[in-house]
Design brief:
- The chain is an alpha+beta fold and 212 residues long.
- The protein folds into 2 domains: 3-80, Glutaredoxin, CATH 3.40.30.10; 89-194, Glutathione S-transferase Yfyf (Class Pi), Chain A, domain 2, CATH 1.20.1050.
- The chain is 50% helix and 8% strand.
- The chain has helices spanning 14-23, 42-47, 66-76, 89-103, 105-113, 125-146, 160-171, 183-193, 196-205; strands spanning 3-7, 28-31, 55-58, 61-64.
- It has a 4-stranded mixed sheet with strand order 2-1-3-4, with helices on one face.
């Protein structure tokens, strides 16, 4: 078996999908029907027991967790320059951003989109969502400040971390203060969205404007 990506449009699978197109790598896309709760089906749970999207099949390798998939793809396609060379200080900075983005804003979005998962008291759901909003806004404020006038997250230039950040900025487009309203993040998202591989990914997934 070649490379297969289980995806749903605009979900976390967007990151590895963009990376594969940046690398020009052949991939078979398999839609996971969230409307039919297919991610909880026995067949899908055999691939990812957590019942979340995405899953990447790469030959005999079955891999879940978005950041793990992304770092694997960066290693597999070094010619795509989706990460700095292994062993360099910039590679360490790349790891920092990938771990931060997956552990902090990506994780926090679950409380914003699914506040009922974070409390046993239905009356507390609005408060859980509001607290998540406040934390997310503070997280994006800090990320914007760390851009430090750069076009990309890393001083060495574009990397998969920029694709990751744009995806997270996109997820916040329905928030009361979308992350795109921060000048550094809005300009960064526009640069990422201008990349041909990113445009091709959005077209393939049928994602319509507004993109962020």
């Amino acid at each position: 078996m070649g490379t297969v990506l289980y995806y749903f449009p605009g979900n976390a699978s967007l990151l590895p999908h963009m990376m594969l197109r940046e690398a020009g790598a052949p991939v078979e896309l398999r839609l996971v029907d969230r409307a039919g709760n297919e991610q909880k089906s026995p067949a899908y749970l055999r691939l990812n027991p957590n019942g979340r999207i995405p899953v990447l099949i790469d030959g005999d390798l079955v891999l879940f967790e978005t950041a793990a998939i992304a770092m694997h793809l960066a290693d597999k396609y070094p010619e795509a320059r989706l990460a700095p060379p292994v062993g360099t200080a910039e590679r360490a900075q790349f790891y920092k951003w990938m771990v931060h983005l997956t552990n902090t804003p990506q994780a926090e979005y679950r409380a914003w989109f699914y506040p009922h998962e974070h409390t046993a008291d239905p009356a507390a759901i609005p408060a859980v969502k509001e607290a998540a909003r406040q934390r997310l806004e503070a997280m994006f404020d800090r990320i914007a400040a760390q851009m430090d006038g750069r076009d990309w997250l890393l001083e060495s230039g574009f990397s998969a971390a920029d694709l990751f950040l744009m995806m997270l900025v996109r997820w916040g487009r329905v928030m009361p203060r979308p992350p795109r309203d921060l000048p550094a993040l809005g300009a960064h998202a526009a640069r990422v969205l201008a990349r041909p591989a990113v445009q091709a990914t959005f077209a393939a997934e049928g994602i319509k404007m507004p993109f962020v």
